[in-house]
Design a protein that fits this description.
Layout (H helix, E strand, L loop, with lengths): L1 H9 L2 H15 L10 H11 L5 H14 L9 H15 L8 H12 L34 H14 L7 H18 L6 H14 L8 H17 L13 H12 L24 H5 L9 H12 L5 H8 L3 H14 L2 E4 L6 E4 L1
Antiparallel strand pairs: 1-2
Helix pairs in contact: 1-2, 2-3, 2-5, 2-10, 3-4, 4-5, 6-9, 7-8, 10-11, 14-15
EC number: 2.7.7.108
Enzyme class: transferase
GO molecular function: AMPylase activity; ATP binding; DNA-binding transcription factor activity
Length: 351
């Protein structure tokens, strides 16, 4: 999110902190493939610089969409703008109560006026095809038992004694709790953004310094790690695992430098072989001046799905759509890929 990096690097402490909050709030929208408007970006900058309050940001966004309503049902920019502002507001609050009510309230505050069911437990069953599961779905909580399951998980966590645990053991147990909480999937939509915000606030109660920017850069990785933690298929040799979530939390809380790549979580992931004619290997060659991990990831994604769009590539590579577009153009200029057909119905050919 280059728009706010200057504030983080050179801004006053208060500006830097606000910029980090906004980067997180906007980055979390990538979980659902959403991108805030330029108007939201400019309004957020005014908040960072202290010209307007977060309440004024929300008011301006509300007024803007009364004048400029979405033209189609597929346009979710308004949702991205409003939810970003609300996340920024809630991250700036020093309040938290560990309870199912708090969890429901976070969802209500985030999606009020956007979803009719904001803050309400869903009354129907759901399935979701997951790229990381090759089109399969996690088995989410049954609508008939959601409230009871939610209350049970909270009660179990509330009674758990963390005293005497090492920092790593504490993180591992929190990871297990968040895994269970997300798997219930209490709401029709917005579960991961709600869970992420709840997790950040919960971690603060342990005294952890949370590197919120990880959610900006790797929000889709966070979601996929929860998917893998809740999926198993013993007939295919696939087991539920928290290993990817723990890699994310290690970076988030302990300043570890774990490599976070969505493709490694795919249930059919195979470590690339080194072949002389492999364009991925060529561009990853340390003596090649074009060596770039983002370009490598893009090529690997295109090898798996040649008609992937920018949003899919951004989600799977773990960066912004703008970054993907820039690297795609560079790959074209370098002669690694070429576009076959139109922008809408064509595909990328690795030359």
């Amino acid at each position: 999110m280059d728009n706010f990096d200057e504030y983080v690097r050179q801004g006053e402490p208060n500006q830097a902190e606000k910029a980090k909050v906004w980067k997180t709030a906007i980055g979390l929208q990538q979980i659902d493939g959403l991108k805030p408007s330029d108007y939201l970006i400019e309004t957020a900058k005014q908040n960072i610089e202290g010209d307007i309050t977060i309440e004024e940001v929300k008011q301006r966004i509300d007024s803007y969409y009364k004048i400029h309503p979405s033209q189609t049902n597929d346009d979710r920019t308004e949702e991205a703008d409003k939810v970003s502002a609300r996340i920024a507001e809630m991250l700036g609050e020093q309040t938290f109560t560990f309870s199912p009510v708090e969890y429901l309230n976070i969802h209500r505050r985030l999606f009020r006026g956007i979803y009719k069911f904001a803050g309400k437990i869903r009354d129907y069953n759901i399935t979701k095809q997951e790229w990381v599961l090759n089109g399969e779905t996690v088995l989410y909580g049954s609508a008939e038992s959601l409230k009871a399951t939610l209350e049970y998980d909270f009660e179990q966590e509330k009674q758990f004694v963390y005293k005497g645990l090492s920092q790593q053991e504490t993180i591992e147990h929190i990871a297990q709790f968040i895994t269970y909480l997300w798997q219930i999937h209490v709401f029709g939509e917005g579960n991961t953004r709600t869970t992420a915000l709840f997790l950040i606030k919960y971690l603060r109660t342990f005294g952890f310094t949370v590197n919120n920017e990880l959610f900006e850069q790797y929000s889709w990785y966070f979601r996929n790690s929860l998917v893998r933690a809740n999926y198993k298929n013993h007939t295919k040799g696939i087991h539920a695992t928290n290993e990817f979530l723990l890699l994310f939390l290690g970076n988030l809380l302990l300043a570890e430098k774990n490599t976070l790549q969505n493709r490694q979580m795919h249930v059919q992931y195979i470590e690339p072989k080194n072949t002389l004619n492999d364009p991925v290997n060529e561009i990853n060659d340390p003596v090649n001046k074009k060596n770039d991990p983002v370009k490598v990831s893009i090529l690997q994604q295109l090898q798996q799905k040649s008609n992937a769009n920018y949003a899919e590539l951004a989600a799977n590579v773990g960066c912004s759509v703008a970054t993907i577009k820039r690297h795609i153009q560079e790959l074209k200029k370098l002669g690694f890929i070429e576009r076959i057909g139109s922008d809408k119905t064509g595909y990328w050919k690795i030359v």
